[in-house]
Prior knowledge:
The termini are far apart.
Amino acid sequence: MAKITPKSILKQNRKEKKITEKNLEQKASSDNVSDAMKNIFNISGVIEGIKPIDNSFKVVGRIRTAQTDSNDWGTLIKAIYECKEDEILFVKCSDDKKAVWGEMASTAALKNKLKATVIFGASRDTNEIKDLGYKVFSKTTRSNAGLPSYEGTIGEDIIIDDRIIKTGDLLIGDSDGVVIVSQDDVDTILKEVNNIKKFEDKCIKKLVDEDLNLDDILGI
Length: 220
């Protein structure tokens, strides 16, 4: 067993402060990740228009993709059982004219140990899903729904606003929105998120402890 010393405790504390994929949900936000995407790749990474159905919902995890018509919610039911434990089901719909997700789907997803469902489209049964505590993000809510068909795809690449989104990409969702990071770029973005958080912490410390103006701190 390793000897516990003041130095080892300090080292452990430094390790805990580093932002990793494992603690990203607790230590950073979609805003931080979007800023990192902007700094490195000059894109926001934001999937426009998607918000949580409850502002308290926050999620970080790897996605499994699905794509279908808004009249077909059956594909999403099949997709639940294609997901691995702790994956996020990310769905692109043809439009948001009909809801493709509701209470029954959320109950099944909880039972199958999904982390969340994020829909580029519409959901419904909002209050019931909130009561379940299952995390759902969508562009809007609708009362009407389509049919339990199975005409879509699961696990294939999808395109939103010229971005290719793949199963295995990393999703960060909270009250401000949803950001997706390509699986190939996760390490690079996490490194930049750490830089951003350190910079912000320094700025806040100067604001509070040194009584400086923010414009002076930022050099504006």
